[in-house]
From TrEMBL:
Major subcellular location class: membrane
Membrane-spanning residues: 25-46, 58-79, 99-118, 139-162, 191-219, 240-258, 270-289
Protein's UniProt name: Olfactory receptor
Domain G-protein coupled receptors family 1 profile: 39-287
Keywords: Cell membrane, G-protein coupled receptor, Membrane, Olfaction, Receptor, Sensory transduction, Transducer, Transmembrane, Transmembrane helix
Topology in membrane: Multi-pass membrane protein
């Protein structure tokens, strides 16, 4: 440590080193970002203005759309800035701040997906008591609980990151500040950081994963006892949510747990693009294209504008 120089700036490896690709990549991801903001903002506006969408299910969907806008805004603007300047430099403080908000929005999304699974469970398995269980006060408290948990969880990682020293010129093999990547470029002992990351991933990640998928075991069992017409309607209300869940969890699991996850940086970057940039884009498309009520509300807005 005595002969090492403490660094206060880090370098991203970026998506590509080719100068000829910087402008095309900038334009592509700028378009994706604008489409993400537009699609999610449209979902929020539809839910706020259409009385048919002012139910607990769509309240959670509107919350998810807001989280998607924030989640995308943590990484994409920074990536666009690096495409424009081609410097890819970030301060340690800014990097840790980005990690905080990235973990905050990611944990908020997976927690909210678990809440949405519970909402579908109550709606399908206990329809007569749905309005009594999922009243507005309960919905607001569930969302506030998700946000409070998601604010405190990354704070633990941040407090331990602030104790680390960075003194290697090895670049972050990503286009954003990722917690495992940041630990790799530290010259301090990161055993506690890695242990906390592993324990929290098992306890909180595994717990939320179980809370998300376990209700669907009961839901599927209930659906199979329904008539064909009711079964089709029940499947349609769950299919959009399940699609979003599988995309989000699938890309994250592939990014962090696939074979050679620490050595194949190109594959990691592609997977990172999916769960940080593309997932917030496809979520509103999935819910709008697979939901008849949302499509009807969207047609009304388009017709009123035209």
């Amino acid at each position: 440590m005595e002969n090492q120089t403490v660094l206060y700036m880090l370098v991203f490896s970026g998506l590509s080193d080719l100068p000829s690709l910087q402008l095309p990549l900038f334009l592509v991801f700028l378009l994706v970002y604008l489409m993400t903001l537009t699609g999610n903002l449209l979902i929020v506006l539809l839910i706020c203005t259409d009385s048919h969408l002012q139910t607990p299910m769509y309240f959670f969907l509107g919350t998810l759309a807001c989280l998607d806008m924030g989640y995308s805004s943590v990484t994409t603007p920074r990536m666009l800035f690096d495409f424009h300047t081609q410097k890819r430099l970030i301060s340690i403080q800014a990097c840790i701040t980005q990690i905080y908000f990235l973990v905050f929005f990611a944990s908020s999304e997976i927690s909210l997906l678990a809440v949405m699974s519970y909402d579908r469970y109550v709606a399908i398995c206990h329809p007569l008591h749905y309005t009594q269980i999922m009243h507005w006060k309960a919905c607001v408290l569930l969302v506030l609980g998700v946000l409070m948990f998601s604010m405190l969880y990354p704070l633990v990682h941040v407090l331990f990151l602030l104790k680390l020293t960075f003194c290697t010129l090895y670049p972050l093999q990503s286009f954003f500040c990722d917690l495992p990547q940041l630990l790799l470029v530290s010259c301090s002992d990161t055993f506690i950081n890695g242990l906390l990351l592993f324990i929290f991933a098992i306890l909180f990640g595994g717990g939320i994963f179980a809370l998300t998928f376990c209700p669907y075991i009961i839901i599927l069992n209930t659906i199979m006892k329904m008539s064909k017409a009711m079964r089709s309607k029940a499947f349609s209300t769950c299919s959009s949510h399940l699609t979003v869940v599988f995309i989000f969890y699938g890309t994250i699991f592939f990014s962090y747990f696939h074979p050679n996850a620490k050595t194949n940086s190109a594959v990691d970057k592609v997977a990172s693009i999916f769960y940080t940039v593309l997932t917030p884009l496809v979520n509103p498309l999935i819910y709008s294209l697979r939901n008849k009520i949302v499509k009807i509300a969207l047609k009304k807005v388009v017709c009123s504008v035209l």
